[in-house]
Design goal:
The chain is of the alpha+beta class and about 325 residues long. The protein has ten helices and twelve strands.
């Protein structure tokens, strides 16, 4: 019997119950008590098992923390996705430490059967999202800290339609991700209102002193009913009841996708469904509907049908020219 298999049997024994005498383990593994002592020491020293020893034998000080084990398929998937996420973050000291711990987790997990951390990188090949916004981890990290410490910051920012940057004094409230791009929701101290800033267009973040008597503003969630990032705020909270009928393969695809938290599907036939949404704006919904081409028909509201028709007329004029 190999050493690795005997270590596996010792682990299995402690999974069954948390207390064993050396002689019991020796009989179970058909080896000497001295060998059991070596196996237990290896589990303590190299795999951090909290095994204590006393006159009554060996026992797990905290059985629930004996090892972090991956047992369910969804946990294996999460570990593989963690591998991909860490790859995108480079080789900072913290990332290397996290990789080291996850590598140990792989070695301690019987479910992986000898599969190592590096092997997980070959399982998932994640193609970058089309239109993925660039992410500056330094900017993201500074803003995260400012939010956690409730700090006022100056940011250097550029509007989408401009080529020059300007300084904004803001109180960061929340980081959100929409359409593969990160955005900062912050309180603009000059405008005295909540504003949204695209992280790819923030070049600097500098912490500023907090004025005496400054009242921390509350985050106002204007994004719950937004289809994307654009949120024309309505004080009465009115929403559009959107219904779009999809046909063909798009109808089948719709049964596998969720485009919005409020989404509700009405199945008319195997290849014909209606997608119901509650949203506060229609501009980004218009682009979404047009992406389906002739397979999409707007049922409601009338305003969305008109936006689609106007866009189609502009397209016709462009191609006729």
């Amino acid at each position: 019997m190999s050493k690795s298999h005997r270590l596996y049997l010792v682990k299995s024994a402690f999974h069954e119950r948390g207390r064993w005498k050396a002689v019991e383990l020796a009989q179970r593994l058909e080896c000497s008590e001295k060998s059991i002592q070596r196996y237990v020491n290896e589990l303590r020293d190299h795999e951090r098992w909290p095994i204590e020893s006393g006159k009554d034998g060996y026992f797990l000080r905290e059985p629930s923390l004996a090892e972090a084990r991956i047992t369910a398929p969804q946990e294996v998937a999460a570990l593989a996705m963690a591998h991909e996420a860490l790859r995108l973050l480079g080789d900072s000291k913290l990332v290397l430490e996290i990789r080291s711990e996850l590598s140990r987790l792989c070695r301690r997990t019987e479910a992986l059967r000898g599969i190592g951390w590096d092997d997980l990188g070959e399982v998932i090949e994640q193609r970058p999202h089309s239109g993925l916004g660039s992410l500056n981890c330094d900017i993201h990290g500074k803003l995260t800290l400012a939010i956690l410490h409730e700090q006022i910051v100056n940011i250097r920012y550029r509007k989408l339609e401009d080529d020059h940057e300007f300084t904004r004094r803001i109180f960061p409230l929340r980081l959100i991700c929409r359409d593969q791009c990160w955005y900062l929701v912050a309180w603009d101290l000059k405008a005295e209102d909540q504003r949204t800033y695209a992280l790819p267009r923030i070049s600097e973040v500098n912490v500023q002193p907090t004025p005496e008597g400054f009242v921390v503003p509350e985050f106002e969630d204007r994004y719950q009913h937004a289809f994307g990032i654009w949120t024309p705020y309505s004080s009465d909270g009115s929403l559009y009841q959107v219904c779009v009928e999809l046909s063909g393969s798009w109808a089948r695809l719709a049964q596998e996708r969720c485009w919005h938290p409020s989404q509700r599907l009405e199945k008319l036939a195997p290849d014909r469904v209606r997608v119901h949404l509650e949203v506060c704006e229609l501009v980004e919904v218009k682009s979404w509907v047009l992406s389906f081409g002739s397979a999409a028909t707007v049922i409601t509201p009338t305003e969305l049908r008109e936006l689609i028709c106007e866009e189609l007329n502009r397209l016709r004029s462009t191609y006729d020219a």
